[in-house]
Amino acid sequence: MAEQDKVKEILKKLKSLGNPIDVAGMARFGINPKNACGVKIPVLRQMSKEIGKNHLPALKLWDSGIHEARILAGMVDEPKHVNEKQAETWVRDFDSWDVCDQVCMNLFEDTTRGYKKAVEWSKRKEEFVKRAGFVMMARLAVSDKDSDDKRFINLLPLIKKQSADDRRFVKKAVNWALRQIGKRNGNLRNEAIKLAEEIMKDDSKTAKWIAADALRELK
Length: 219
Known about the structure:
mainly alpha; Leucine-rich Repeat Variant; 2 domains
């Protein structure tokens, strides 16, 4: 089957599996229901296994603009084929926290640009681009078993700098990154606690929330 026909079949299946009730309920979880079918993540994971890793269909699924197709694209794409242009195009297209998180954890964190993009995106202004930067930090703290502590200690100043950003999807990702770095090992736990205690001194309510929530878990 030609790649174009394969993508058409996948999109057709997505639409057939969709549930309007689930689409209506997405907003309750802070998910953008625009262009959504209402297909749940476990179903998308099963579809991704059936499709297998394949870069070209992933690009076409993304270009469809369909919410679940974009999550599926991140699941089936091949990290080794993700170049700078694709990473930047996709991250600018993020319009919902679930697409952001799923693509980061299923694809971007496994590329050779993982840490570079975590730093770059955490400094950007766009809400979901900035979120992506901190999601990458959180995920790498869990999945990268080989990097030394210094690599994560170098990320802590970025967490401190953005801790006053009160946008919902940014502050939760900043908090997530701080907690995951702290949970990596004893040394990083101490470093994360020290940073959280510094952040607690900030006048920002958002910064205090990020720090207090992290300290509850890390202590």
